[in-house]
Design brief:
Layout (H helix, E strand, L loop, with lengths): L2 E6 L3 H12 L4 E7 L5 H5 L6 E4 L8 H7 L5 E6 L5 H6 L4 E4 L4 H22 L9 E6 L2 E6 L3 E7 L2 E6 L2 E5 L3 H7 L5 E5 L2 E4 L5 E3 L2 E4 L2 E4 L2 H12 L7
Parallel strand pairs: 1-2, 1-3, 3-4, 4-5
Antiparallel strand pairs: 6-7, 8-9, 8-12, 9-10, 11-12, 13-14, 14-15
């Protein structure tokens, strides 16, 4: 699942900030970055836009006027330095309201809200076929943590518990690696070592008996190497 998004802001540095944040989120794809909302119609004529990061105060047309002028716009997350517009924004059905300077953690929270709403809206409109659950819960000490399958980088076994490494951080829970493997899709995850499971689409390099994923070096055991190479590389290797 990929969400196509557009950032609309007259400040180049503000657009650059959102652009850099979008690059860190694997389910977001930046379709365009423009300085006024009037350009949106031209963008939408070429490809579908699912989410807008919208500034309020812009010289050609401000964000609030734009929202009032359109009845069927994509999901909207407002990005502004002015908190006074918050109530009016929410009355116009925006998903979230981010105050500048925007931190990545606050941005991350907002786009995950957009992701959940996007999935819910697609399901209610009947636009998608039934999919496996996108998320699950694990118990970490005295609380339950919600994780997304698409965020998992790899899972590491440590005696009678596992560490689930994700794009958001690492989570430790009392499970065996076998239990985790039974709940992960064979299509998307693969066992590379008696103590490691990895997300196939997160693998960056395979060198000798080692895999690299976002700076993490994960061992490949001799017993698994042939299967790992076959499943991860398949027919995607370019040859002379």
């Amino acid at each position: 699942m990929m969400i196509n998004c557009v950032t609309i802001d007259d400040e180049p540095l503000a657009r650059e900030c959102i652009t850099n944040y979008v690059r860190e989120i694997d389910f977001l794809r930046l379709t365009a970055s423009v300085n006024n909302p009037i350009a949106l119609s031209q963008i939408e004529s070429k490809e579908k836009v699912d989410l807008i990061f919208l500034d309020i105060q812009m010289p050609v047309m401000n964000g609030i006027d734009f929202l009032k002028s359109t009845s069927n716009h994509p999901m909207v997350i407002i990005t502004t330095a002015f908190p006074s517009y918050a109530l009016e924004g929410y009355q116009l059905d925006v998903l979230d309201y981010l105050l500048k300077p925007i931190t990545f953690s606050r941005f991350f929270q907002a786009v995950h809200k957009a992701r959940e709403y996007f999935i819910l809206r697609q399901s209610s409109n009947g636009n998608t076929t039934p999919q496996p659950e996108e998320s699950f819960f694990i118990k970490c000490e005295h609380k339950y943590e919600k994780l997304y399958f698409s965020d998992i980088l790899f899972v590491q076994a440590m005696q009678n518990y596992v560490i689930i490494h994700t794009t958001r951080g690492r989570y430790t829970t009392l499970l065996y690696l076998k239990n985790v493997a039974e709940n992960l899709s064979d299509k998307n995850f693969i066992r590379v070592h008696k103590s490691y499971l990895v997300a196939i689409d997160k693998v960056e390099t395979i060198h000798d008996h080692e895999i690299t994923i976002q700076g993490h070096r994960i061992p490949i055991s001799r017993n698994y190497k042939e299967m790992v190479l076959k499943k991860i590389i398949k027919d995607r290797l370019w040859k002379k």
